[in-house]
Amino acid sequence: MKNNDKQYNKYTPVIGLEVHVELKTNSKMFCRCSADYFGNKPNTHTCPVCLGLPGALPVPNKTAIEWCMKIGLALNCNLPLVSKFDRKNYFYPDLAKGYQISQYDEPFALGGYIEVFKEKGSQEIKKIGITRVHMEEDTGKLVHETVDGKKVSLIDFNRSGVPLVEIVTEPDFENEYQVVQYLQKLQKIVRYLDVSNADMEKGDMRLEPNISLRTIHHPEQSEGSTDSSAKPQNDKFELPNYKVEVKNINSFRFVEKAILYEIKRHQEILDKGETPVQETRGWDEAHQRTVSQRIKEEANDYRYFPEPDIPPLKWTQNYIEQLKSSLPELPDQKIKRFEKDFALSYYDAEILTRDILLANYYEEAVKVNQELGIKNQENKYPKVIANWIINKKVDTEKTPPSQLIKQITQETKVSEISDEDLNSIIDTVISENKKAVDDFKKGHENVIMYLVGQVMKTARQKIAPDRVKSLLLARLK
Fold first, then answer.
1. Domain limits of the chain?
2. Residue 146: which H helix or E strand, with range?
3. Tell me: domain 419-476, CATH 2.40.128, correct?
4. Average pLDDT over residues 350-371
5. With b meaning 16 or more CB within 10 Å and e meaning fewer, what string describes 290-312?
6. Cβ count near 159 (within 10 Å)
7. pTM of the entire structure?
């Protein structure tokens, strides 16, 4: 092996995600306290159950369970017919009971996927495996303040017990671009299902990437070889023997920054022949870096065991089919339908479907236009309406679809000038632009659009450019 063998190695990111999504049910997961806690006075939405007082027994929230299962179905998961809750034991001040009711080996949903593009600008699809979707209760929230000149940590238990869905992926992400796509799609899906607001600023959706690097060894190049296209011997590698989790990130931009920072930090450690410490870190936006929080726990550290106060849950296949049939049209399905039915590009369809209210508004506008029977050149109104909504940033709350169609019709209405009058204008333009006409006849075909512009300028009316171009070409033959 040569001394400069580093050039034959490269590090490939190995990234998995854990995403926590708070459900917007009326009550908490295991009690009847209101789950609408955000912005309320601390410790006003609590009871013996969510405070973990002795003798208080949990009663599962049926709606929360159904919503968790719907998320699983929307993510292409399988739903086992038997599931159960487990106790996840650990001590932390915001965990009133000393354990969290969660799920371990029999979650509500298993083995799904989301598709993303492999690279920016690429149309190649990568399937991101989803390991599991499970249900648990949220913890309280620590508030760090200064009281009477002393730094203290206060606990607000309003959030304790709020229904929380955790979505765990396989370590399938290869770069931060794939991660952000996945998260954007996941956010859209839970919003389309109407089970969560997924507002990251309010903590409705929390992002936790697990990051490591693996080293790919390239075949040695022969002495004096100029071949720089050496490739890895195979694409199957053992997972790295460590991983670092960055906890509770609340924006797509921050998760991208945290991943890029960690990749660079890991590479510097690995280049020294060392292994990064397996730990939990946090993102420090003020200093643009991650900071160590605690050594990473393993599953056995939590001493999982079945929750004794809640019996196992069993479903019928018929019940699961009913849940599946109740799912709305999901974002990717809507994008494909918009491409097919309205001849939109993927780019336009994706923008219009980012928010279900915007997608519904667009469809209603197209429907209004069809009912009015308004047509333009080649009847491309669905595309025209899409462009109008996207480019002019229409205020959909203040502009009803019928009013939008009226505006578009007025501003795109073309003149009904006769061919005879239009040809007369064209003859004038041809006689006044002899150089441009000569250039066109010499083979400079792009000059035709200049002449089209001159005709429209002379006419001082809205005329379909294709019509002007067609008559010009006939005149110049």
1. 5-219+240-319, 329-412, 419-476
2. strand 141-147
3. no
4. 94
5. beeeeebeeeeebebeebeebee
6. 23
7. 0.83
